[in-house]
Amino acid sequence: MKDLISNFAEHISDALNSIQSSNLKPAERPIKNVLITGLGGSGIGGTIVAELAAPTCSVPITVNKNYSIPGFVDENTLVIACSYSGNTEETLSATREALKKKAQVACITSGGELYQMAQSAGWNTLTMRGGNPPRSMFAFSFSYLSYMLSHYKLIDLDVIAGLENAVNLINGEEASVLIEAEQLASRLRGKTAIIYAISGSAGIAARWRQQLNENAKMLAWEAEIPEMNHNELVGWEGGSAQYAPVFLRHDNDFDRNQKRIEIIKNIIGEKTNHINEVWSKGNGPIEKTLYLVHFGDWVSYYLSEFNKVDIMDIKSIDLLKSELSKIPL
C-alpha cells in the first residue's frame, strides 16, 4: 500500500494518458440528470466529484450506493457505473435497473462482469489496471468521473489542466506532505478522529474516514459544516480529550463558514486540546481536492504503522462477502 500511495501522482498521469487516448461517444439523447452508482473505494470518487461539479454542473447529480436506483431515472438520465472489480453486486444490480429504464450508461472499471456488459452494449468505458485494493485506485476513478462529466459537456471545468496541475503540485509537495502527515498521525494515535469539512468538501472528509477505517483499522466519523452546527455541536457537551477533530480547510471557503470554524474550535476546545487543521494547496478545485485526499491517505498509512496493523487486510469485508455469496441475490 505504501507504494500505491506513493504513486498517487503517477496514477493521475496514467489516467490522463488513458483519457487523452480515449474515444468516447457523444450523448445519445439530451441529459437531464446524472446518477453515479458505486460503493466503497469505487464510490467515494463519485461523492467527491459530485460536490466538485455542483457549482457549474448544468443538471443535478445524484450519487447512489444501493442495489436499487431512484425513481427519476429514465431515458434522459446518464448513469455512470463505477466498480473497480466490475463485480460489485450492488452496482451490477443498480446498473441492470438503469438499463430497464432505458438510461444512457457509461462505466468505469478494471474488468469483471461490468466490463463485459459494457463491451457487449458498446457503452462509453474508461478502464484502469486491475489487481489492487479499490481504495488505492482513487486517482483513476476521480479523474475518469471528472472527465466524463466534462466530455458530456455538463460542467464548466478544465479537467485536463486541473489534473495536470495536480500532478505537478503533489510531486512538488510530497516531501513536506510526508512529514506533516506523519506528525498529524502521531497526534491522532490512540484517539478517535473526527473529520470536519465545509459543505462542498464533505466527500473529502468521508474519504479520510474511510481510509482510517480500512487502512488503520480505526473507528472514526466525519461531519459537515454548517450542518453539524445544528446538532453535533451540542454533542460536544459530552466530549473529552479522547476525541481529536481534524478540520479540512480551503483558503477560498465561504467566509462565514470560515468564521464558524473559529467559533467551533473555541467551543470544542473546552473539551479537547487535540484540535487539528489541514489546509489544501493548489489554485483550482481539482488540485485542492486531490492534495487533501492524498494527504489523508498518508495519514492513514502512518496510523497503520503506529497501530501495528496490516494495512492491506480487509478480512471483515471478505467475511461479509463470503457469507452473502451463500444467499441467492
UniProtKB/TrEMBL annotation:
Which species is this UniProt entry from? Owenweeksia hongkongensis (strain DSM 17368 / CIP 108786 / JCM 12287 / NRRL B-23963 / UST20020801)
Keywords from the named record: Isomerase
Q: Which GO terms describe its molecular function?
A: carbohydrate derivative binding; glucose-6-phosphate isomerase activity; mannose-6-phosphate isomerase activity
Starting at the broadest rank, the lineage of the source organism is: Bacteria, Pseudomonadati, Bacteroidota, Flavobacteriia, Flavobacteriales
Q: Family per UniProt?
A: Belongs to the PGI/PMI family.
Do you know which InterPro entries this protein is assigned to? Glu6P/Mann6P_isomerase_C, SIS_dom, SIS_dom_sf, SIS_PGI/PMI_1
Pfam families (UniProt xref): bact-PGI_C, SIS
Which superkingdom heads the taxonomic lineage of this protein's source?
Bacteria
- UniProt protein name: Bifunctional phosphoglucose/phosphomannose isomerase
Sequence ranges assigned to domain SIS in this UniProt record: 24-165
One biological process term in Gene Ontology:
carbohydrate derivative metabolic process
